Amino acid sequence: MTVKAGVVAVQGDVSEHAAAVRRAAEAHGETAEVVEIRTSGLVPDCDILLLPGGESTTISRLLEREGIDAEIRDHVAAGKPVLATCAGLIVASTDANDERVDTLDILDVTVERNAFGRQKDSFEAPLSVAGLDDPFHAVFIRAPLIGEVGDGDDSRTDADGVEVLAEWDGRPVAVRDGPVVGTSFHPELTDDARLHRLAFFDRTPA
C-alpha cells in the first residue's frame, strides 16, 4: 500500500521529515510517496501531513498567504493525521502566546516559543514515549514549551481529549489530539523513525 505524505515545505527540515516518513512506512510494510507543499491545492490529495519546524511567525504567515492553512484544517477535520514538530507545534496550537502567530487551532494546547532557551541551550535527552517500548532520543533546538493541555475538540477530532505522550522535567513535550501529534523536539533529526510511525501508522482507530 502506498500513502501520500505531504511535507509542508515553506520552512524547516523538509528532507529529514521526508526520509523519516519513508522509513516509518517501510517499517510498517507500506510505501510513502512524499510531496513538498508550498502552494494550495496539494493538501487535499494527501493521506498524512508533516508540519516541520522553522520560524513560527514566518510559517503561519506563508500558510495563510498561500491558502494552505484552511486546507490543513480540512485535512484534520476529515480525521487525517498530522505530525507537527517544534515551530510546527506552535503553529498547530490553539494559543501561541504571541499575537504574531496565526495558529491553526488543530491542537488544543498553549505553547511558549523558545521556552527551553536559544540555540546555545539546545540539548538531547532520552524520553519515555507512550506507545514506544524503548526510550526515544529527542533533540531539542530552541524548543517551545507546552503549557496548558486542553480537553480536545470532540466535534473536530473525534477525540476524548489531549493525550500527553511524553514529558521532560515534568512538562509535556509530546501530545496527541485526535489525528494530530505535536512534539517540542525534532524527531526527524535522528535515524529513529518510531515517532513518525506512531503518528501515522500505529494509530488507535477513533
Throw out a few tags for this protein.
206 residues, alpha/beta, Rossmann fold, seven-stranded mixed sheet, three-stranded mixed sheet, 6 helices, 12 strands, 25% helix
What do these coordinates show?
Strands 2-1-3-4-12-11-10 form a 7-stranded mixed sheet, with helices on both faces. It has a 3-stranded mixed sheet with strand order 5-6-9. It is globular, with a radius of gyration of 15 Å. The chain has a single domain (2-200), classed as Rossmann fold (3-Layer(aba) Sandwich). A hairpin with a 2-residue loop joins strand 11 (171-177) and strand 12. The chain is built from 6 helices and 12 strands. With 206 residues, it is an alpha/beta fold.
Summarize the structure.
The chain has helices at 14-27, 56-66, 68-77, 87-92, 154-157, 194-200; strands at residues 2-8, 31-37, 48-51, 82-85, 93-95, 107-112, 123-127, 136-140, 145-149, 162-168, 171-177, 180-183.
Question: What's the structural blueprint in terms of helices and strands?
Answer:
Elements: E1 2-8, H1 14-27, E2 31-37, E3 48-51, H2 56-66, H3 68-77, E4 82-85, H4 87-92, E5 93-95, E6 107-112, E7 123-127, E8 136-140, E9 145-149, H5 154-157, E10 162-168, E11 171-177, E12 180-183, H6 194-200
Parallel strand pairs: 1-2, 1-3, 3-4, 4-12, 5-6
Antiparallel strand pairs: 6-9, 7-8, 10-11, 11-12
